[in-house]
Amino acid sequence: MGRAKIPRKSTNIDMTAMCDVAFLLLSFFIMATKQKPPEAVAVVAPTSVSSKVAPEKAILVTITKEGKCFLILGDDTKKMDVLKDINTSKGLGLSDAELQKFKKLSFIGFPLGQAKSILSMNELPPVDRLSGIPITDTLNNEMVDWFRSINAAYANSSRKDLESMILIKGDNAAKYPIFKDIKYALKKNDIFKFRIVTNSETVQPGTELYEANKASLQGK
């Protein structure tokens, strides 16, 4: 007797619901993900085993291997206050329109004396053509002026909160005297604590820190 044939059914699957879920998840992760803070210039920072997360609205000082210094004022709510203070204290003569344009710059990397001429340009020159903030001359260390204005803008904040926002990121090939000039500028403004930005490094097995972390995990 012949075998009965089972009729084949369609294998089409409605993927509409699955696509809706996928796009909802994608939208959630895009909106919830914290973006990496902007950098004035890419540098190869030294490595460390520290795992502390940098604050989102950091005041970031970047030092290149050539010794150029750049500054990022990460907190937009305080940025204009800093710019207004330095405009007044250093007599830059910037108009309100120029200050607004200054605020839109993602980083600062030029002498204060060039601010007016640079702000008159349609766009900021390439990073490699900027001279950086002058810091090597103690009589003209403009980072002292910038942190004086930062102090004024954050006068109503606690010193601890301000110090926790200050980050220094130096290229691995940068010379120590440049870093010392930054420390001088901070010290002149009674800022004695800051954080060094490094690239993460794996804790090597057998080291004291590795054993301490292992014991901590086993104790949980």
Overall description:
The chain is of the alpha/beta class and 220 residues long. It has one domain (47-200). The protein has eight helices and six strands, in the order αβββαααααβαββα. The chain has helices at 16-32, 76-89, 96-104, 115-119, 142-153, 159-165, 176-188, 208-219, and strands spanning 47-48, 59-63, 69-73, 166-170, 195-196, 199-200. A four-stranded mixed β-sheet has the order 3-2-4-5. α5 crosses α7. The mean pLDDT is 82.
Features:
220 residues, alpha/beta, 6 strands, 40% helix, 10% strand, extended
Blueprint of the fold:
Elements: H1 16-32, E1 47-48, E2 59-63, E3 69-73, H2 76-89, H3 96-104, H4 115-119, H5 142-153, H6 159-165, E4 166-170, H7 176-188, E5 195-196, E6 199-200, H8 208-219
Parallel strand pairs: 1-6, 2-4, 4-5
Antiparallel strand pairs: 2-3
Helix pairs in contact: 2-3, 2-5, 5-7
In short:
The chain is of the alpha/beta class.
User: Can you give the helix content as a percent range?
Assistant: 40-55%
Biggest sheet character: 4 strands, mixed
Low-confidence stretches: none
Give the DSSP E fraction (strand runs of 2 or more residues).
5-15%
What's the number of structural domains?
A: 1
> Residue-averaged pLDDT, rounded?
82
In whole angstroms, how far apart are the ends?
Answer: 69 Å
Query: Number of DSSP helices?
Result: 8
- Work out the radius of gyration: 26 Å
Globally, the shape reads extended
- The tally of strands reads 6
State the secondary-structure class: alpha/beta
Strand order of the largest sheet: 3-2-4-5
Q: Spell the H/E element sequence.
A: HEEEHHHHHEHEEH
